[in-house]
Amino acid sequence: MARPRKVSYTAKNRGSDMAKITFIITLFAIVLGGFIYAVLIRAPIEATTKTPEGPFPAIKAEDLGKTAGTLKDQYPELFLTRSKHGLMIGQHKLDGANYTIWFVAENREYLAFRIKATTSFDKLKEQDLLTYFGQLYGRPFDGACSSDTTYALQKCSYKWWVREGVKLDVHSRLKKDKSVEFNAISTNTYLSSKHHHTIRSVVPVN
Question: 124: phi > 0 → left, psi -120 to 50 → alpha, else beta; which?
Fold first, then answer.
């Protein structure tokens, strides 16, 4: 009876096996890393940047700093007028809201430094307003309500930082007929501060 043949592993065989093991480990690490990025890192980022559902008009903060010409191309119905104080004012309607855009002269261009979105609701709960903007920008850094004024049953104002250099003021006014007037004003604080003396007598507080 023939004796079993011994199989000896040479250095070449051992090296080939190690290469296969290394390849499998590397492939597993890549797959695991992709899974962690997709589920634990990317998903929360997408969730926080997703705009929540609600009846409120977009604040259009991304339009701040753009030139009047750029926004005219972006919104063909934008009607532009120029004031004697060196400001340009644009008005247009979008998604059921009225928008007013204020521009100031900067380096031979007119740049948007303030945008106001105005609309009204048959009814609106103050908590719905806070929840909607709170999901986008967190807790307001300032807020106050006053009741039973001459023109309204209640007036509320809140302030948020949208991002560095962009402030959002939200005003709601519950009128005598129980409808609610809503204003959202986004402001480029750099441009408004730089041109304070130019704009202070022209731009309304709210």
Answer: beta
Cβ neighbours, 10 Å, residue 26? 10
Q: What is the pLDDT along the chain (206 residues), one digit of tens a residue?
A: 555 555 454 555 555 666 666 656 655 555 445 443 443 333 333 333 456 677 899 999 999 999 999 999 999 999 999 877 768 999 999 999 999 999 998 888 999 999 999 999 998 888 999 999 999 999 999 999 888 667 778 889 999 999 999 999 999 999 888 899 999 999 999 999 888 888 876 666 55
Given a contact cutoff of 8 angstroms between Cβ atoms, the answer to whether 57 and 117 are in contact is: yes
Q: What is the pTM of this model?
A: 0.71
